[in-house]
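for the writeup, i need someone to sanity check this before i put it in the appendix. the sequnce is what the collaborator sent (i think, or maybe the updated version? ugh). structure was predicted straight from it, no edits. if anything looks off just tell me and ill rerun, i have time this weekend
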Amino acid sequence: MNRPLDRTHDPNLRSWVTSANQPDTNFPIQNLPFGVFHRRRSAEPSRIGVAIGDSILDLAACGKVGLLEGLPEPLQAACVAPTLNPLMALGSWASSALRDRLSELLRWDERQSPPEANILVAIAEAELLLPAHIGDYTDFYASIFHATNVGKLFRPDNPLLPNYKHMPIAYHGRASSIVPSGRPVKRPQGQRKPPDDPAPSFAPSQLLDFEIEVGCFIGAGNELGEAIAIEEAERHLFGLCLLNDWSARDIQAWEYRPLGPFLAKSFATTISPWVVTLEALAPFRCPAFSRPETDPQPLPYLCSEENASWGGIELAVEVLLRSTQMRAAGIETIPLSRASFAQMYWTVAQMLTHHTSNGCNLRSGDLLASGTISGEAEGTQGSLLEMTRRGDRAIALPSGEQRTFLEDGDEVILRGYCEKEGYARIGFGDCRGTVV
């Protein structure tokens, strides 16, 4: 399950792209996340790029000048595709082989000069697009702390439903409304019915919220009717991104019974543009969440020794907010939450395995979301619903404003990074969206 460490993880590696050697960069040579872009204000087609420092390595340009020669032909062809789907479909061997080649290409070596070809594009000059065609999207509910926090608001004496500790809970989301970081998010309209109103009304949502999550892109898929064993699950995962599951809580409260979320979730889901591969995350694997002894053990199909030992990921995630007034006054963002992905009750392997346990077929580029990442302590809640106790406790902003839910003009920024002594810091980049 855990990808082996190799020369690409060496913390002493340096790149001839000097910005990649800064200690606070999201994208050192040890990261090499994949994305899709084109130059701003250009008519050029989309192409695959790799983030390195403040630049993008253009794989199509690399292919044209022969820098990918020697790689298997299907892999070379996937590198010049307009989306990551063909590369994802090749499976984990392809991302590992390409990572090794790109690490060799980008590393500083005093014995040889960097390539003379024009293969870099400044991130500031690029428009970052969705990294893949996302055919299907499933949103899980894998944080027991989030599930408990939310459950207490509605069922104080019985916050968790009986099935929660036995299987990863999820619902099927809407792939068509997934948008890249930076795209404005239009406040949705819908039916709302406050408890004291005699009938519902149709109006813009007044309880707009965010949820910080991790998105997992499927690599090689499975055939319909063929389940994926937990020991093989991570071979079918390509990499991770950050995800904001925007939520209209007032619409959700009226519509969710008996079949769960619908229009309260389908108006927008924002993802970060860079997909960090499981190879890059290998140094940051950790044991799965330690369940209390009183909790039931998962059924055998959701258990493996390797998942217990390495199923977690030491990934810190943060939420920041900036209002229109704060921007006008030159006030920086205010941090709202910081939590750890290692505290999720269910691992990414368990989510994928359960998803396919009935024979459901996953396809390359499909997206699985973790559900809101929350911790047990104050300051680790991943949504305003939890932070404000469903609007009963306002958050003070440095501009003198208060927030219970999001107002027009509010910008929400999600960040994620992995840090561990002896290894390079791996960042995910920003996942941004502004409510309009």
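The mean pLDDT is 96. The CA atoms of residues 65 and 117 lie 7 Å apart.
thx in advance!!
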